[in-house]
Amino acid sequence: MRQWDALYSFLDAGEAQRAAAFRQDVDRRLFVAAHGGLRLLAGEAMGRAPQALTFSIGPKGKPFCGGSGLEFNLSHSGGVVLIALSRDVPMGIDVERARSAPDHLQIARRYFHANEAAELVSLDEPEAEAAFFRCWTRKEAFIKALGDGLSMPLDSFRVSCLPGSPAMVLSLPASCVPAPWTLLDLSPAEGHFGALAMARQGAAVSLRSLAF
Fold it and tell me: What's the whole-model pTM score?
């Protein structure tokens, strides 16, 4: 409880108001862990007090901390929060809780790149469902790294999704400036899929696990 109270104290007025708006305590605590945790880690990286940080929202919805050179991104699902930080390297992160998704192939056919959908359809269950979540998190992380939010159609680019294939961006959207993209799969907790996308190859990545 003390740690949660500390994270809550890091929030600014707007974030505290958003936290208070949640009806379910579990949702409120997850929001505080995500946004308070982001402030804690970003403050450590910049040598500043977490509550003193000022976050702004870019024109396409991606948050930033002006003048810091710090890139950050967060995602949460099923009680797990992922927070990514980098110096001047665009990146995005995503996590999804594995769940029964009987319509996952229908979703893939409708929204994914045609090659991705064809690869998923070729698989047997439960392999196809796991590959779907791998593909989904890789695509979401890539879109978040670009900062385009919902304006980037999921079928405008292609990632690898077959079991055993390395995580890769196989084709870029027409509007995307070519870059040496890196995709990393993450397994943050049992029953969860995660992915990290970075606009650089060979970047060192360190992982930390925190319990809130």
Answer: 0.91
